[in-house]
Design goal:
It is built from 11 helices and 8 strands. It has helices at 6-33, 47-69, 74-95, 106-143, 162-233, 239-269, 282-299, 319-335, 367-370, 393-403, 429-432, and strands at residues 274-280, 303-308, 315-318, 342-350, 353-360, 407-411, 419-425, 436-438. Strand 6 (407-411) and strand 7 form a beta hairpin.
Length: 439
């Protein structure tokens, strides 16, 4: 049978323990309702014994959570916790009225939990343990060794109601065994489906990475050929032919940039992209980035300016990656700002952070789109504008900035354009220590 991933096991066990903790709190409230507070005593439940059980259950829950944090095997912790819960439930059932209450149904909760944490076999073991423990309690109550707790203050003689005890035991044991089989089979099917989905996702990512990687070389050769044509035939081509060549070159560069972003995002996702950390003059980098797109901004009829704030000292970062972040943000601003608009870039110092912003006077971004604009392949639909690009530019920006220990976000007041901010630590010792740092 498929063995679930250790991370998934720990997550499921942690969630189960949190639910168990909530149940313990709920049982504690029930004990309070049976306490000596005037007007609240509606049940005749042994307060001391049940309070001790609540305490023990809480300790087991806490100890199990601590064991998970200290990297104990999740399956071993699950076995210990579920067996302990089964024993505690058995005592709780006895001190809470036994067969005269719905408390024995708690066994089913443990069996369901075991189905997802331990699989079908583990759930069957817990179901059998539950049935045995409950049978022992009923038999001891029948013999009078354990005095039955009559929480409703009703007369009940176990010796005169032996048939009822047997029926009650069957009503709990049979559903527990059936639940272990049905829930166990469902859990196994879900795990298998999850495994297949993961394998398909890994295959898709590997295939995409291979295709994208193989595209880079022929694209680079194509771009080199177009550059050679531009240099050698510049004087022989008319204006229309030169325009076609320039459009081809620009499109090729865009496509080559997309390929690079796909490869870099893939490396970042698996933590294999090395950062070439060096001391960088951010104001100079921003100025160079603006100059690289100024011609495009002029063509689009846009005014692009840089407003440096406080002097920013040298910042440890990967100059190439941050340049590409600036290029992406500036390209987006140019793309979505109407003719005659303005793009304002600013740089400020906030404590130990350098904060850069790129503001435009476009149509803005809706609150709904702001929530997923940095997601992979996410694209924002602007009124009157067709969707352009792959939706990877901002994803790349987010990963690159976070790889430096910074943060990136967007603010877009309704109808007042968009402002993209990102921060970089000005003196991150972990990044400044070496020439290279891997995220």
């Amino acid at each position: 049978m498929f063995a679930p991933d250790e991370i998934d096991e720990k997550r499921d066990l942690r969630n189960t323990l949190l639910v168990a903790g909530a149940c313990v709190v709920g049982f504690g409230v029930m004990i309070l309702a049976s306490g000596p507070i005037p007007g609240l005593k509606v049940l005749d439940i042994p307060t001391l014994e049940n309070s001790l059980l609540v305490l023990v259950a809480g300790l087991i829950t806490g100890a199990s959570l601590v064991a998970l944090r200290t990297n104990w095997p999740a399956r071993r912790v699950a076995w210990g916790a579920l067996v302990a819960y089964t024993l505690i439930i058995t005592l709780t059932v006895h001190y809470s009225g036994g067969p005269l209450t719905p408390m024995p149904a708690l066994y089913l909760l443990v069996v369901v939990a075991a189905s997802f944490l331990l699989g079908q076999r583990g759930a069957t073991v817990i179901a059998i343990l539950s049935a045995l423990c409950y049978a022992i309690v009923l038999y001891l109550e029948y013999l009078g060794i354990l005095k039955m707790v009559l929480i409703w203050r009703l007369d009940f003689d176990p010796r005169e109601r032996s048939a009822l005890l047997v029926v009650n035991w069957l009503a709990i044991s049979i559903p527990a065994l059936l639940t272990s089989q049905l829930a166990g089979a469902l859990a196994a099917r879900l795990r298998t489906t999850n495994l297949h989905l993961r394998q398909s996702e890994q295959l898709r990512e590997s295939l995409t990475s291979m295709i994208v990687h193989d595209l880079r070389n022929p694209l680079a050769s194509l771009m080199a050929g177009l550059d050679i044509l531009r240099l050698t035939l510049a004087n022989e081509l008319n204006a229309e032919q030169m325009n076609v060549l320039e459009v081809s070159r620009r499109s090729g560069h865009v496509l080559l940039g997309m390929v690079g972003e796909l490869l870099d995002i893939g490396k970042m996702e698996v933590g294999k992209l090395a950062l070439n950390i060096q001391s960088v003059d951010l104001c100079k980098l921003i100025t160079e980035s603006i100059e690289s797109v100024r011609t495009l901004a002029d063509i689009e009829g846009l005014d692009i300016r840089f407003q440096p704030g406080d002097p920013i000292e040298l910042v440890p970062c990967d100059k190439q990656l941050i340049s590409r972040v600036m290029a992406n943000l500036l390209s987006n601003a140019i793309k979505y700002t109407p003719r005659g608009g303005q793009i304002m870039v600013s740089a400020q110092v906030e404590n130990d952070l350098a904060r850069i912003s790129v503001a435009d006077t476009g149509s803005g971004i809706s609150v709904q789109d702001q929530q997923h604009i940095f997601d992979k392949f996410a694209q924002v639909e602007r009124p009157g504008q067709e969707r352009r690009g792959t939706g990877l530019g901002l994803t790349f920006c987010k990963m690159a900035i976070e790889a430096h220990g910074g943060h990136i976000w967007v603010e877009s007041p309704s109808g007042q354009g968009s402002i993209f901010f990102f921060t970089l630590p000005r003196g991150n010792p972990k990044l400044a220590e070496g020439a290279k740092q891997t995220r």
